[in-house]
Amino acid sequence: MVVMAAAVVTMGFMLGVAPSSALPATAIPSTLSLFYGVFSSLFIAIHAVLIKSSLPYCNNSTIELAWWTNAGSAVLILPFVIINGEPFKLHQLAQTDTWNWTVFLWGTLVTGMFGFLLCVAGLLSIKVTSPITHMFSSVSPALPLRFIEIAYYFAGRSIRPANCVGCVDFQGCAHNVSLHYSCALE
Length: 186
Fold this sequence. Notes:
Blueprint: H1 2-17, H2 31-54, H3 62-83, H4 86-94, H5 101-128, H6 131-137, H7 143-153, H8 160-185
Helix pairs in contact: 1-8, 2-6, 3-5, 5-6, 7-8
């Protein structure tokens, strides 16, 4: 069933990136963007497997693993923040009349808290299921939003994005149903 679900995802990907004569040349994805997309998916899948294997090192605590994941990410991104001059840009912005510290601080706190909760939710999903199940089942809840986006931005243009999302949505539902029935049989 997992291989079939992966085949449906691959078919949806191919439907989504296949060029169409109805699209302008600037809207067709380049080979480089497809290369980055494939490798991004590969590294996300590897990340899920590494998360599952690293849980024992954090006493099977998703909160502790989430903390270490975020701390590691912050340390790795810090040199790029400095190289890009973000502290200087923030200081310049703080000197303007339009700067509002309270909005900045509340925005930082709220997005940081929700980001951490999303991290914990993803880690819990990997902990209680498997990396493969997490990868397939975590896509399904976001797909209704994608259909709304397609209806809004692609109204009357092309049905290809809807076909792509439909394949992924069907695959997620089929995988979740198969898991339900396989657990019921055990």
